[in-house]
Amino acid sequence: MTNVLLFIALSLAAYLGFVLLALGQARHWRAASEAAAPGRIGKLALRIAGGVSLSLALCLALFRDGPSFGALLWTTVISVAALVVALTLSWRPRLLRPLAALVCLLRPDGTQEKEGNNR
Amino acid sequence: MAGRRELVPVLVVVQAALALVGGYWVTVGLSSVMAHALTFVFGRVEAVVLTGMLAFGIYLLLILWGFAVRGVVRLSLGLGFVGGIGWTLPFVIRLTGAD
Amino acid sequence: MGSTFRESMAWLHTWAGVTLGALLFAIFWMGTLSVFDREIDRWMMPDTRLAASPTALSLDRLVDGVQTLVPADASRWQAALPTAREPLVQLRYADPDRQPVTRHLDPASGTVLPDQGTLAGTRFIFPFHYNLHLGWRQLGYWLVGLAAMAMLALLVSGVVIHRKIFADFFTFRWARKLPRSSLDLHNLTGVLGLPFHFVMTLSGLIIFFAIYFPNVIESVYREDVAAFAREAYGLFQREPAGQPGSLASLDAMAVAATRIWGGDPPYSVRVWHPGDANSTIEMRRTVARSVDMNVDTVHFDAASGAVLRTHTAPPVVHVQRFISGIHFIQFDHWPLRWLYFVLGLSGCVMIATGYIYWLETRRKRHAAQGLPGVRIVEGLTVGGVTGIIIATLAFFVSNRLLPLGAAFAGYERAALEVWVFYLVWLVTFAHAWARPGRAWRGQCWTIAALAVLAPVLNWATTGDHLIKTVLDGYWPVAGMDLLLLFGAAIAATTAWRLHRRGAMAAERTERHVLKAAD
Fold first, then answer.
1. How far apart are CA C492 and CA C495, in angstroms?
2. What is the DSSP letter of A34?
3. Percent of all residues in chain A with a pLDDT value above 90, rounded to a whole number
């Protein structure tokens, strides 16, 4: 059972990691949410958060299966997770709106992109 | 590109063939030398297997270079030079009795 | 080829892709199916659909069953022991005419299962993947090797020419016109699957380095090439004595081997010179528990059961075995197996969308200038993509339709199935070249039809319908049927979309014509 849960957890962490990385790109943020896209610092924060989530996925994979299987598992999971994120953004980007809203809530006002700059 | 016929000039095909075939023979020569050289660092079987794995990387680099280099002449010279080293070095080693 | 490095790489990418793409698709397709080759075996050989045996296998009892089959003067025979994915004993030996024979035994009862008369997944689909079944002077190996080197070059050149690799990392504009959407999908599957595609291709080559660079062995070992096999893989030979000898307990030897390997059981047993006084027993350690495909072997003296030699790979050889293991995926890890399957399919999509992009960006120009390129390559693409899928499905369908023991024109059942595969494949090429406009659509519908027919035939000929196999939890067959139906759905949807696209295009042309006539 723990193995199943660990696998689900690491897959979700990988998916979340790539979603955060994608939301750091203006085009994908705009597809997901009508809110103002993050500014420079916001983008950086999203990328760091994405990296942390992917690293968490790696740790979970190594913990679940040890060094060789774990590394192999992580590399394959992140490829598939990235593909799923791309398909989400392409077919159902609005599914990511709640997450974008959460990101908006978390950021301080100073990082918001100025209204006039929104294309 | 409009109006230009998509005929592939003979020289381009020659370069491609040379890059593929010549690159392979150069890799064969280089890998033989490398395997031999590595026996001074590793054991026999390990030198062979390590070289066997690295040989594909060498071939890939030669293919990419072979397709990018400008002109058949430069390709031939390059392959000839590197291949020459690879293929003659074992003979030189044997002749000088360094085995 | 180009005045800049990027231009040369674009040229290389296009030409290598167009000329070798169909071959690469075949290799990737068969490779992806090979991930589930043992499950395909269960589907294609119904008599082998056994449940895992509750009792441990007795090797000594097995020997009795083996000796009824193997000729008395055979130089060796080999048994692959039951595993989680293949709960049978697979026996290999040479018949009196020196032809290789494979038979299956039920591990619980020791009985020999009837000859299923098929090469199925492990002996047709899997070997096709690495040698195309072209044995003449190893031509198949060399073609696959060439394609693999081309794939490495394609991956590297693809990255070089991809201008916005990070900006377009997640981009898939599926609603746009075909050149844009197919290129997006090509880039997506290529870039996101890059680690998998590169590692699989390189590891595949590394597995066979002895075939592709035999000079490496010869340069160090000179004439004594057999010494390499001894030192690397633990090859051990003993000349037959010419005197009859006895056979000690194989079960005891298996226990001894397991102890030497710290608890890992053997996965295969080979008996050299059976019945001879100098007969040796070779046991190989399981490869299911770690990534690396170890070559740990123990050789026993058959008469006394004494250990003659143990072997384990030296460090660098161990690396080669690890890399091979990543490719062979013989280990027990179901999530990884499914991930490999999905990524393998993504590789197939990458190749197919590459072709589609090439075709759509040159279609108008070639038609206007009367160039044959698009016509030729489109036939190659359709036959190479949907064609090989149809041929594979025909292989499965013929397996269910041909009765056991069937023979025709001197060909046995297994060969007949293979004939069906190749003949159907040829027909798909002919169809693609003959009817270029509608080939994609027609072949997609054919895929859908065959992919539904196969599970239905499975039900009709074996009684194992989907509900039964799912409820019983017999996943090899249930999984195959489910994947077939899923594939049928995708093929049908694609065919329908193509039909709609064709109808809309025809409508647009009609409106243009009417407007012009006004």
1. 5
2. S
3. 76
Closest CA to C311 of C206, C211, C229: C229
List chain A residues with CB under 8 Å of C340: 76
State which residue of chain C sits closest to A84, comparing Cα positions. C170
On the question of pLDDT at C459 being above 70, the answer is yes
| Chain B CA closest to residue C315 | B46
Query: Could C174 and A90 be called an inter-chain contact, meaning their C-beta atoms sit closer than 8 Å?
Result: yes
**More reliable by pLDDT, A78 or C84:** A78
* Chain B residues with beta carbon closer than 8 angstroms to that of C2: 68
**Tokens (6 digits) for C109:** 């009862």
User: How many residues comprise chain C?
Assistant: 518
- Judge B/A contact: 3 or more CB pairs < 8 A: no
Token pair 């996965």 is at which residue?
C267
Locate all alpha helices (DSSP H) within chain B, ordered by sequence. Answer: 10-17, 23-38, 44-68, 72-95
Q: Is the pLDDT of residue A36 over 80?
A: yes
Q: For residues C514 and C518, give the distance between their C-alpha atoms in angstroms, rounded to a whole number.
A: 6
How high is the ipTM of this complex?
A: 0.92
Query: A45-96 pLDDT, tens per residue?
Result: 999 999 999 999 999 999 999 999 999 999 999 999 999 999 999 999 999 9
Chain C CB contacts of B40 below 8 Å: none
Does residue B70 surpass a pLDDT of 90?
no
Supply B61's token pair: 């680099």
Average pLDDT, chain C: 93
Q: Does residue A111 carry a pLDDT above 60?
A: no
Distance from CA of C138 to the nearest CA of B (A): 17
- pLDDT value of position A57: 98
- Chain C closest-CA separation from residue B52 CA (Å): 6
Q: Which of C169, C292, C343 sits opposite A76 (nearest CB)?
A: C343
A90–C172 C-beta distance less than 8 A: yes
SS3 C72: coil
How far off is chain B from C209, nearest CA to CA, in Å? Answer: 6
> Is the CB of B60 less than 8 angstroms away from the CB of C212?
no
- Residue C126: what pLDDT? 98
* Interface residue A89 vs chain C (CB under 8 A): yes
**pLDDT tens per residue across span B14-26:** 888 999 999 999 9
SS (H, E, C) C379-411: HHHHHHHHHHHHHHHHHHHHHHHCCCCCEECCE
Which residue type occupies A109?
A: D
